[in-house]
Amino acid sequence: MRSATETAYTVALNLSLQYKQTQSLVITPRLRQAIKLLQYSHTEMVAHVEEQLLENPTLEAVPHTEHGEGLGDGGLRDKAAADRDDRIEQQNGAETNVDWEKFLQHMSDRGPGLASGSLGGTIHDDLPPIETNLTYGESLADHLLFQLHMMRMHDDEYRAAEAIVHNLDHRGYLGCSLEEIIEETGVDEDLANDALELVQTLDPPGCGARDLGECLIFQARQAYPEDDMFERILGQHLGNLERKNYAAISRDLDLELEDVIEYHKMIQELEPHPGRAFVSEEPRYIEPDLYVQKINDEWIVLLNEEGMPELKISGYYRKILEGASKEDKDYLIEKLKGAEFLIKSIHKRRRTIRRVMESILKFQRDFFDHGVQGLRPLVLQDVADDIDVHMSTVSRATTNKYVHTPHGIVDLKFFFSSGVRQDAGGDMAAEAIKERIRSLVADENPKKPLSDQALAKKLSEDGVRVARRTVAKYREALGILSSSKRKQVF
Description:
The chain folds into three domains: 29-109 and 287-360, no CATH class; 140-278, no CATH class; 418-486, Arc Repressor Mutant, subunit A. It contains 22 helices and eight strands. The chain has helices at 29-39, 42-55, 73-90, 100-110, 140-149, 155-166, 178-185, 189-199, 212-223, 229-236, 238-243, 246-253, 257-268, 317-322, 326-363, 365-370, 380-387, 391-397, 430-443, 452-461, 468-477, 483-486; strands at 59-61, 290-295, 298-303, 311-313, 402-405, 408-411, 419-421, 427-429. The chain has a four-stranded mixed sheet with strand order 3-2-5-6, sandwiched between helices. The protein has a two-stranded antiparallel sheet with strand order 1-4. It has a two-stranded antiparallel sheet with strand order 7-8.
């Protein structure tokens, strides 16, 4: 038997070269560009094409193709047929790569004859850009600071008041504590309180408040200076007002029930967000990416091409390439390849979006025929299986896309909805149930609003089985208040 010290170990190190074949997905810059194009909305796509026309000298727009055609019955059908023919001719962006060296040599052999582009200007070229002519509305801070400038006050008090104004949120409420104002400005507590009270007297009334109750109290003091009952109601019973628990307010403040209701009416005329008038939110304009219209009992899907020009490879640079240096030639060939890829990507994007919409139309035919009530459950995988693409492609094709339908302009994601199992068999789309809840609430007696349980019962009577908690979830998603808050006493 050997001891541990007598045991010998042999270690063999073999160094060798081995070949191993593996597959991996590499996202090239151009593949990334194609994926990005699919996610663009129509407006974003038009802006991207305009940008590429400026950046890529070998890319140019076909004249008179940047405006969409009318959507009359005949024009719509003709345009749809032309789109189908165009899809066949373009082979939907098939990977038919061009050897630009041979192509340019072939163009050179054909001789001159291609028209060059014009670089002429217009009478408007010397005008300043439109951005310099835009005007912007006055902000809440500007409005309040202007009033402070008109007042006589100590420099420290003005500095504290200015800090308070700059710390108001979009509602007009003070978004920080008074201690932070003191720390920021270096003034004492009494001076900071004086500055806050000064800001709270400015127009619009209610600015500088720390919460809703304080905001309404400031306004009530100005509107009804002789009546302190507003301050007592708002200071002690704001929660009861929200719940419309008038009886509790009446008992505690020794008021008649009718008087409490009358006070509530006047309080509702006050502004809970005094800074609302100064919030300058830019409107978001939605331009549909697709149109779906019924022509002679046939639904037709048409892409919105308004503002989107047809692109082509420019022939102007053939002359430049003939006498260009190697560096210039390499640069232009790279731009030519980029232009070719962009044109193919645009055609492929059009085809994918159209196929997705046609598949949605097939699944959601009842929606287009009857409205939201006909919406059926649908998931991305259903459409992906139908048109034989990956689910991520369907997701990208429906992102930020809108379709114009007979029932309004809707987001493509609207058509994808989970289902609720029904007793009679099959599923019902959640959006269809939400629409029924919205309709029931719109038709209810405002003095006797329907509770969630009552809504669930009415839906059950119509053949829609849904739990009370599901009704509550859908109601909240629709932005509908609970029955106690919807109740109208007056």
